Structure formats: C-alpha cells, structure tokens
C-alpha cells in the first residue's frame, strides 16, 4: 500500500456533514487524479498494443443509484469512485481504439475490507457483506483477468461492470 493510500485507510465510511474536505481531497486525488496520471503515462504504450485495455477498479459505492439501494456511509469514497467511473467512460469515448471501462471486483476479503467493516458504526457494511461471499484476492484477480481478456469495445467499453458479468446503473 502506498503512503497516500495508508493515510486514507479507515476513513472510507463517512457522512457528508462529518467529513473533512481533506478526506474528500485525498480520496479524489487517489481514485481520480491518480487514474488520470496513469492513463496519460501509459496512453502511448496502450496505443502500441494489439489488444489495448484500460480498466479501472471501481466499486458499487461509485454508483449514484446505489445511494438509495444500499445507503452506506461512504461519502468521500463513493464520490471519488463515481468520478473515477465518469473519467473512464470519458476516456472510452475519446479513444476509439481502446477498450476502457470501470470494473467492480465485488467484495474481496482484504485487510481494508475487514478494517472498513469494523470502522462502520452503522453496521451496514457487515450487513452487505452477509449477502455476498467475500472472494480471496487471488480468486478475484483470476476472475478479473478472465473478464478483461474477453472484453471488447463494442460489448464492454464505457460500461460500469460488476464481477458477475452484469452492469451497474451509473
């Protein structure tokens, strides 16, 4: 984990009126600005590829629709993932040679997931986790590789994917 990522850890579960502007800035910097820097740095290498793919790891928390479906207290994290989704969709439409889309890996059994569930005072995270099997990181990675490998611009580009093969509502 990067030093910047470590600073944000434990502050994913928050509500708007209690969240510092610094927390919003940190999440936005990591999830949006970091992604833009990555795309700009690798764009020419992607253009040279015979199968160019630019995938961003997102979250159901980045779906504006999910606010009503699962109103978890994720204001800074959700806001930054929604912006990440927007910028990846914009990249898709600006680069007609590229397969680009945001992908949600679903619940993955990481230290961040466990710490976040413990930090969520509402208990909603634990309730959401009960509805899913948390994948081990290696299992999630293998599923993601298969999904990415099979993706096409026509079928997948610019869409907000979930790991089960469906699409999230923006």
TrEMBL record:
Source organism per UniProt: Pholiota conissans
Pfam families noted in UniProt: adh_short (PF00106)
InterPro entries assigned: Fungal_SecMetab_SDRs, NAD(P)-bd_dom_sf, Sc_DH/Rdtase_CS, SDR_fam
Lineage of source species: Eukaryota, Fungi, Dikarya, Basidiomycota, Agaricomycotina
Protein's recorded name: NAD(P)-binding protein
Family statement: Belongs to the short-chain dehydrogenases/reductases (SDR) family.
GO CC annotation, single: cytoplasm
Superkingdom, natural source: Eukaryota
GO molecular function list: oxidoreductase activity
Keywords from the UniProt entry: NADP, Oxidoreductase
